[in-house]
């Protein structure tokens, strides 16, 4: 491996902070003049606060796209079961990732892609094929719980977020600005 070859980062585990770590890396990369792309898997909806800031970073070399049907509904909670649109959105996210891999990005973050096999949105073979499309110099970040072992075998840096203590166990709900 050389300094100029792009690495594969994996942020996984049951702890909080996987997307946050990836966004921190994105900010560092943008601050150093790198072009960054973020593709959100299964994160449709307009309740993710970081996107307001990401919109402001577009002028600095950031692009992002969110795929997936909204999962949270006020008064109804979270929808776990996949529908046809969820599956279509996951494939559109893969297609977009391949397209961006072939362009001029320095860093590409595939947020929550690790979770898609466990939740039935994508097949492992699809993710392995996607990773196989990575150009040599592209830095690739994969986030989400349940990272498949075969994906971890391809990683150059793997960080497992492990919960030691979490206030959600006290019954506290996800808080706007902190968890989303």
- The third-level CATH topology is Rossmann fold
- Give the full name of the CATH homologous superfamily: P-loop containing nucleotide triphosphate hydrolases
Q: Spans with pLDDT under 50 lasting ≥5 residues?
A: none
- CATH class, named Alpha Beta
Mean pLDDT: 91
Helix/strand-derived category reads alpha/beta
Largest sheet: 6 strands, parallel
Order of helices and strands: EHEHEEEHEHHEHE
Number of domains: 1
Please state roughly what percent of the residues sit in beta strands, choosing from under 5%, 5-15%, 15-25%, 25-35%, 35-45% or over 45%.
15-25%
Counting H and I runs of at least 4 residues, what is the number of helices? 6
Write down the Rg: 16 Å
The separation of the N and C termini measures 36 Å
Q: Quaternary arrangement of the chains shown?
A: single chain
Strand order of the largest sheet: 3-2-6-7-1-8
Architecture overview:
The chain has a single domain, classed as 3-Layer(aba) Sandwich (Rossmann fold). Helix content is 32%, strand content 18%. The chain contains six helices and eight strands, in the order βαβαβββαβααβαβ. The strands form two sheets. Strands 3-2-6-7-1-8 form a six-stranded parallel β-sheet, sandwiched between helices. A two-stranded antiparallel ribbon has the order 4-5. The model has no long low-confidence stretch (mean pLDDT 91).
Structural key phrases:
180 residues; alpha/beta; Rossmann fold; six-stranded parallel beta sheet; two-stranded antiparallel sheet; 8 strands; 18% strand; globular
Short account of what is shown:
This protein has helices at residues 18-31, 50-57, 84-101, 115-118, 124-132, 149-152, and strands at 8-12, 36-40, 62-66, 72-73, 77-78, 107-111, 139-143, 157-160. The chain is an alpha/beta fold and 180 residues long.
